[in-house]
Design brief:
Layout lengths: L1 H12 L3 H23 L1 H9 L4 H24 L3 H21 L4 H20 L6 H8 L1
């Protein structure tokens, strides 16, 4: 717990609007990808069939979409950003790996790699000063 408190103190001392804007844009991108997954089920089926069987397809699509929708919304607000980013890590790592096991799409690989990097960054950095977490901490 002391480590997390040290990270919070460092992040709050070194925060600026650019990183908070980056967090909001990252959350909006994750939220957009969740909506995209719900609309493009045929494309997702072709991606997931190469990795898993037919039964796991429905579980994966619903897990990925729900996780992206909820996690993206919370990241935009700055609420539980570390936990939501941590929940996104296996999904984004899987998105990077699926490009190597299935058909290679350079644009998807770039998006997944950038998302994975930002996710790792926000796991360590946290919400920042302009977030719901920071405001809740001030008023609690």
């Amino acid at each position: 717990m002391e480590t997390v408190n040290n990270w919070n103190r460092w992040a709050n001392a070194h925060t600026n609007f650019f990183i908070d804007l980056l967090r909001v844009l990252f959350g909006a991108f994750i939220l957009y990808k969740g909506v995209y997954f719900l609309n493009q089920t045929a494309y997702l089926e072709s991606l997931f069939i190469s990795v898993s069987g037919k039964g796991a397809y429905m579980i994966l699509v619903h897990y990925v979409a729900l996780s992206h929708l909820c996690g993206g919304f919370f990241i935009v607000l700055g609420l539980l950003t570390r936990w939501c980013s941590l929940a996104q890590l296996p999904l984004l790592f899987g998105a990077v790996l699926i490009n190597f096991f299935g058909e290679m799409h350079p644009n998807n690989l770039l998006q997944a790699s950038l998302g994975l990097f930002l996710c790792c960054f926000f796991v360590f950095y946290g919400s920042g000063r302009h977030s719901v977490d920071y405001n809740l901490k001030l008023h609690a």
